[in-house]
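Table 4 source record.
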Amino acid sequence: MTVGATRVLIVNPFASGVNERRLAAVSAALPAGTETILTQAQGDATELAREWSPRSEAIYVFSGDGTYNEVINGIGADVPVGFIPGGGTSVLPRALGLPRDPVRAAALIASGRPRRISLGIINGRRFAFNAGIGFDAELVRKVDGLGRRPDGKRPGDVRFAITVARTLVEHRLRYDPVLEIEGLGRAAFALVANCSPYTYAGRLGLRIAPDASFEGGLDVVAPREVRIRAMPRLAGQALRGQHGAADVLSGHDLDRIWIRCDRPMPAQVDGEDIGDLVEAEIIAQRDALTVLC
């Protein structure tokens, strides 16, 4: 590493959209003298962000959402961060308004304006755009269980869609109340959003919490229970960005969300499995991070 470098580009070479050609083009679009560092294993990006943030003018991240999450959990100083789309979905930069093309995104970030955003924290773990307990976390875990292709990349959208269908069948197309959200009531699962869209299905943004904003607190959306007859309506509401009906609990611009589960349930942050939880304290960390976009 070059000791005098003031900007660093952290790259996950195994991310779905990262290859040598794109990396070269992204590097050329960033300010001259930016130091490029490749991660080698899970957790590397957290350590790199912790090491470089106190002495860098900017940190750029070319990867998918999992590595973005590692970086925000390692940031130890108020340094601007630019998130360049390199994953299969790359929710965070897209939700920030950046293009999906990594070279165009890198060029915008290189000359971009700083923007302050809020983050969420679940049991001490930071997240940038969403956290979930139950349904979506179970999907994350099952997709992770599919492993990676020979080139190190994650499975594509078709395998994900098959996994969704199989999971619904396993649950017999129904989800019963299994957790309690303090002050709101019992629900089948909980989705916590720091922005809208909550995530993407290909080019389509799923606006599960349409009023959520990077500049505000956290939103929570939690169906009381789910039956097969309600699934088309819930899916349509997510695609159209409509608020849920009476059978969906919701909270907007919250500073704290407390959830207790009847049994250990899978949890995820920014699309990363964080294991099973029985209790979750979820806190809004307002005005927490400077991003370039």
